[in-house]
Amino acid sequence: MWLVAFSARNKSLTYFDNQTKLTFKYFDYQTNGFSFMSACSQSHRFTAHNQQGEKRTFYVLLLTLFTMVAEIVAGTLYGSMALLADGWHMGTHAAAFCITLFAYRYAKKHAHSARFSFGTGKVSVLGGFTSAIALGIVALLMVVESVHRLFNPESIQFNEAILVAVVGLSVNVASMFLLHDHEHAHEHHHDHNLRAAYLHVLADALTSILAIVALIIGKFYGWIWLDALMGIVGALVIGKWTFGLVKQTAPILLDESIESNYIEQLNQTLSPYATVTDLHVWRISGHHYGAIISLVDHSKTPYEEYKHMLEKFDKIHHLTLELQPAK
User: In the chain, what are the domains?
Assistant: First the structure.
């Protein structure tokens, strides 16, 4: 977070971030009795370009797409709703991987573009919201088809369906190891994109297991209805993930204020020195905040002290702080 503090009294400027400080003293700007301090992010590069992570995610995306198509085709040919549900569920994760790759590349390409006032942090958020809506429709269609087959069962070619499901599970396990090794090796980077991709693959592996269990039981016990039931379960898993993604992305796109605890911490930090007259904090990316704070200073606290107070709020990457002296 870069901070610029002005003071006309000393005809000077201080320009610093959390690691670097360029001191030209202070420069104070006053107009109509108001004193302003502007704290702003000079670079909104919220997605550090991780070339190795991007490459591994691309490989996993290819594996996921291949398995998704194979399961959907096999489920259609062999009459397995469990395979169809697992195939469409893999589509949710393929969409997540596409969002990850798009975020890497688009953010890198437009990192310094003046067209994005707060950076490209919401690109992946918008993509996630769009894919969630589309996949929610898919989940609904899967439920309708599974319910239909539950009451109107069709014959299933169990051996072929089980083989395809096992291949799908193997691909999921391979993808898990591919992403987990990289995530563990770069754990200190806190790459949330790769972490999310790994969790998606893990969830998909569990869904593949459901399909295999349904097919094996159906083959040996004749419970054909279990396949349709597992199809419903798979659709519900997609629906749950879809709802969670919409719940996460919609508030960010609508600039909803962040959790009250964070705002309360800001108030508690500043209130001993100034009266907080206006406070807005919102997300400018999935994990970064923008903030506008207006204060009436009654303690004559120097700008340097306010800077130290706000340093601990490291999620705020674009800050505008307005100070008005108490009358």
Answer: 3-45+259-325 (no CATH), 51-253 (1.20.1510.10)
